[in-house]
Fold:
Amino acid sequence: MTLDPVLIINIAIAILVIIIALSGIKQIQQGQAAVIERLGKYHKTLEAGLSFIIPFFDRQKFVRNVNARPHELANNRIDLREQIMDIPEQEVISKDNIRMQVDTLVFFQIVEPYKAVYEISSPVKGIQQLSQTTIRNIFGEMDLDTSLSARESINDRLRSILDEATDKWGIKVLRVEIQDIIPPIELKEAMQKQMIAERERRAKVTLAEAEKQERILTAEGQRQKQILEAEGENQAVILKAEAERKKKILEAEGQSKSIQMVQEATAKGLDAVRVVLGKAEGIQGVVLIETLKAQQEIAKALASGENSKFFLPNDLAGLFGAIGGIKEVLDLSKDISAKQPKK
Structure:
C-alpha cells in the first residue's frame, strides 16, 4: 500500500509548523531574564515564566559576559540575583608612601537588563577595573593609620563611587567590603611592638586611675565620717544645752514657787501678828514676833529643799515651850479678870 504524496507533504508541513511553534515558546526561570532582538534590534526583555517569540524573526541575545559566574547560566540568560565579585588583590601606595596589599569584595545586582547588555560590552570587567582604580585613588589620599582604622568609611566611599558609575549600565552596587589590608612585614612587626607598648601604657593609666579613684573615695569617706561626727557632737551639745535650759527653768520655777510660798506664809504670819498684837500686851507681843521669825526661817529651809532635816536652837525650842505657858497664864489672867466684879 502506497501513501499519497500529497498526504505525506501535508503531514510533513504540519510537523514542521508544530516544531516551529514550539520553538517560539520560551520558559524563563525565577531570578533570570532574557533579552529578545527582532531583526537585529532590541525588542523586549523576557521575565520569569512562559513567553512566546516569533521564530526566525526574534532571537535571544547572547549575554555571557554580563554575569559574574557565566558558567552557572546559559549563554542567553541574565542573572537578576545579587552577585559577588572578588576583586583580585592589588598593591596600593598610601599618602605616606607605604605599600600595602588590599583585597576587596563587590556586591552588585542587575536591575535593568537592557542597559547591562547594550550600554557596555562587559559589565563584569568594567566593575572590576573601576573598583581597582577607585581603591588606588582612595588609599592614595590617606596615610597608613587612617587606612587601617577607617575601613567603614572606605567601604562607603567605594560603594558610592561605583554605584554612581554603574548606574548608566543598569547595575546597582549594593555593598563594597575591604577584606584585608596587608602592610609590609617589617611594618607589621613595628606596629605590633607599638600595639604592645600602647596596651602596656593603657594598663598603667588604668591602674593609676583606679588608685586615684580609691584615694578619692577614701578621702570622701573620711570627710563624710568627720561631717557625721561633727554633726553628732553638735547635736549632743544642743541636747545637753536644751537639758540644762530645761533644768534651769524647772529650778527657777521651783524657786519661784518657794519664794511665793515664803511670801504667802510671811503674809499670813503678819496678818496673825497684827491680830494677836491687837489683843496681846507686853511680853506676849515680843514672844509672838520671835515666833514669827522662827516660822520664816523654817519656811525658807523647807522651800530650799536642800535638807530634809533641820534643827532648832535650844533657846528657840525653849521659847516655843515658854510660849505655851505664857499663853495659858494670859488666858488664866483674862478669865480671873472677867470673873472679878466691876467697881
